[in-house]
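Researcher: Checking consistency across runs. Here is Benzoate 1,2-dioxygenase electron transfer component BenC again:
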Amino acid sequence: MYKVALNFEDDVTRFITTLPMETVADAAYRSGINVPLDCRDGACGTCKCHCESGSYEMDGYIEDALSDREAEQGYVLTCRMIPESDCVVTVPASSEVCVRSQKADVHARLTEINRLSDSTLSFTVSGDQVRAMHFLPGQYVNVQVPGTDHWRAYSFSSMVNQADESVSFLIRVVPEGLMSTYMTEKASVGDSITLRGPFGSFYLREVKRPVLMLAGGTGLAPFLAMLESIQQDGSAYPIHLIFGVTHDVDLVELDKLKAFAGAIDNFTFGVCVASDESSWPQKGYVTDHIEPGHLNDGDVDIYLCGPPPMVEAVSSFVQERGSQPASLYYEKFTTSK
């Protein structure tokens, strides 16, 4: 049995004790603490934390969830981490978010489906239980594919609209994907939709310095919710978003970004397309459009959401520039069928 100190980002420390061959995530749950967690199989990376001291065993995970470089730097997946000594683990979330509570399913009805492009669609759900939902801008829920036992994780692309009790999501259309097939071929307004959550440590913190947001594809979704929240509260600091996609067809929700730019005094954004065949004027990847001013000599909070290669590319870019940001929050996502 080993003691593990969990240090949360709001400077709160909680101590747990692990049983023989018990993971840190399981021990935390047993102790009434929900560290950020989803798959429990070392596949999603949601439970990634940093081990400041101590020894441990960790295997049975995939590189998309935790790269070799991250493992060498002491990052761990708490769902696979089995302590072999007392440990100190930094959790990238507040202690309040990690208080264990029963996450009841939210039953809603499908009220809108918008095919934004050949590659992307949005959907909206409404209902009394939706109005009562509490989540942080940037978090996600698991959505049950109607008619199946399968669930898919989607970030909120809006905050709850109290007027019509609705909330929206942005998803990529995947050929033969369960949710994609349902939404494009079977769904009807009024269908029942079940949500479970919220989950995730990728959420907007208090804006205390300039912010750089980097979105890849449908990784734009959590930033739309973040910007909606910022529009309500305002910001004294500059916020810049770079939205990168692979093909022109992936360019969606630009009107919303323009509206945010008009409504939030300090918000600006840029858009780039990676494909050489693109007709969009700004080509390349998001890293091609990060300017020194965006990094602000390290006095910047970076939020990053996209596929694993993009997250790795941005992490390498920041390290190579030698300008370590005050904070780097990121969420990797992979496309599921």
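Researcher: Does this match what you'd expect to see?
Model: One thing to look at in this run: The mean pLDDT is 92.
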